[in-house]
Amino acid sequence: MSQGVSAEDLFKLKALSQPVAANDHIYYVENGVDQVSNGYTATIKAVDALGAVQTIGTNGTLNLQPATVGDDVYYTATVGQAKPQLYRVSKGQEPECLTKNANEAVNTVIAAASGQTVYFKTTETAEQPKLPSPQDFPATRHVTRLINKADGYGWLPQDVTYRLRRFTPATGMVEQLFAQGYDFDLTSVSADGQAVTYISDEQPLNDRNFNRAVNYLDVTTGETVSLTGSLKQGRFTDATISPDGRHVALVGDDGAFGRHTVADLFMADTISGDLERLTGDLDADLVPDFAGDFEQHASGKLVRWLDANHYVFTAAYHGRSQLYSGQINGQPKLLNDDARQIIDFAVMDAQTLALVVSYQDLPSELVRFSLTVGAEEPLVNPNAAYESTHEYAHPHRFDFQATDGQQLEGWYLPARTTAPKQPVLLYVHGGPHANYGETFFYEFQVHASRGFGVVFFNPRGSTSYGQAFENNVIGHYGADDYQDVITGLDAALAKYPRLDATRQYIAGGSYGGFMTLWAIGHTTRFAAAIAQRPVTNWISLFGTSDIGFYFEPEELDADLFSKEGLASYWQQSPLAYAEQVTTPVRLLHGEWDMRCPIGQSEEYFTAIKRNGVEADFIRYPQSFHGVSRDGLPSLRVQRIDDMTAWFVAHPSARN
What we know:
Blueprint: E1 15-22, E2 25-34, E3 39-48, E4 53-57, E5 62-69, E6 72-78, E7 85-89, E8 96-97, E9 104-111, E10 118-124, E11 149-150, E12 154-155, E13 161-168, E14 173-180, E15 184-189, E16 195-201, E17 212-218, E18 224-226, E19 235-241, E20 247-253, E21 264-269, E22 275-277, E23 303-305, E24 310-317, E25 320-327, E26 333-336, E27 341-349, E28 352-359, E29 362-370, E30 376-380, H1 384-387, E31 396-401, E32 407-413, E33 422-428, H2 442-449, E34 453-457, H3 467-471, H4 480-495, E35 499-509, H5 511-520, E36 528-532, H6 538-544, H7 548-555, H8 565-571, E37 585-590, H9 599-609, E38 615-620, H10 627-630, H11 633-648
Parallel strand pairs: 33-34, 33-35, 35-36, 36-37, 37-38
Antiparallel strand pairs: 1-2, 2-3, 3-4, 5-6, 6-7, 7-8, 9-10, 10-13, 11-12, 13-14, 15-16, 16-17, 17-18, 19-20, 20-21, 21-22, 23-24, 24-25, 25-26, 27-28, 28-29, 29-30, 31-32, 32-34
Helix pairs in contact: 6-7
């Protein structure tokens, strides 16, 4: 029997991203995890038409954002302790550093199709973001803005400059296009290099306005116009200029339902300024949010052009990626609906794409996809050698029905065991506006290898099922969503007799941590529970989370300071039901978490411990909210071990 996935295999598995097609090659990033340095790596490689792979950029720990001009490859590299800089590697030569400003970090690199210019964004600040402050004599921090910290980063810099720069290969000159004190996302460059699109806050000094506008900069005149000004609450994620410069394809939403509004494709005319929504009838989300733990450094490109009249984009639908194409004056058509996630994609020519895909039982693969016939050819599987001696657990997808008739879907990942019965682990995703689906989940594979049958569902509130489905949880946390996951668990137990109903466990992180604690406050069916980085008290979260003051009024459908706010927040808090808990529970929380600060677990632990419940609380140092996704690798492994130990120590429920 082949080996299953062990926790330590995190250091063996690879993930691909950021494909770029040029010169009869596909350049891409191979992402890995290094056990010795306890950090992450990224290497730029290329595969040719015959399938031969060569390494392009390895001079930095993280080599990212490949862009090509002729035979030269431009990219960012993080070398030693220095901030990322722009590098160029020519055929047969050593990498050359093109920027040498120690205070500026290069973030994004895009080359014009003409090859005459390379644009890149930089961020300059001398402030240290991480916690705790590393200075021997730290200075005080004077906080004046509502938005003053960000999970995964730390305290936001108060003295920072964001720049758009341009490199001209013919002259070697680096010049500045603009500099500003607020952030922006560089998203595309016109084919002739004379225009760029970038996305930025519409009112950057207003911490209660979250509109994200698409800006079109004519580099020759210096004039900037907003392409999305007609949408007063628009929030955009991507924008791409057509090859002839006449149109810009945009992905975003009109903000009709706040920050959980389902995204659409829009088309802007650069001459008339007209803006048209193209996918209003498409019941899919063009900004995917897969609840996986394996994707690294995806490009974020959601729409690309095949030629001046045809475009291609991906969307999330019922837990999987769909691939669409369309033309300027026509409706998009579905090209591919396979059960997988399309992590990244690039245009090779008007009939061919390069796709980076992931399946529940295949971590990462680069394939060539034909738009004309819909067939594809595998090009690179970075885990082929690993898979010759290991086997992944293979999922079973199933449908079930909620008590009110709502159709739902879930998955069962069988334990790799010959035992006639296997304990069942119900896992709840975060968000709640995210979705489980057809993508590799390293942690689930480890649990399956350790003998647990993992079941997971997309309850109401999840993405990829349309706006009404996503809206359902608003103002009703712990209602239909709770019933959905419990009903799904019952459906799995009935459908798969190898699952042991006497050994039921529940776990989840963030919103999944909320649901874990909500569940044990309303049922005693679980032998043990593990809540990771949970929300336990909406009242205290409001002013301590990096997003609390604006996330909660939308999600709970009331402001904390409104007449009904306090009662509503408490009623929807797991802490309110702590005295009903008898299930043994372990709390896992990162000490640097700014999304759901560690005080959330501290409050809950105190409440149940004083009530005599068997509980413990593990604090993960130097860890933000995403400790299980991109945290310190050693702690990612430790966290799974901590989960297994807790479940094994509690073999049956104490009803």
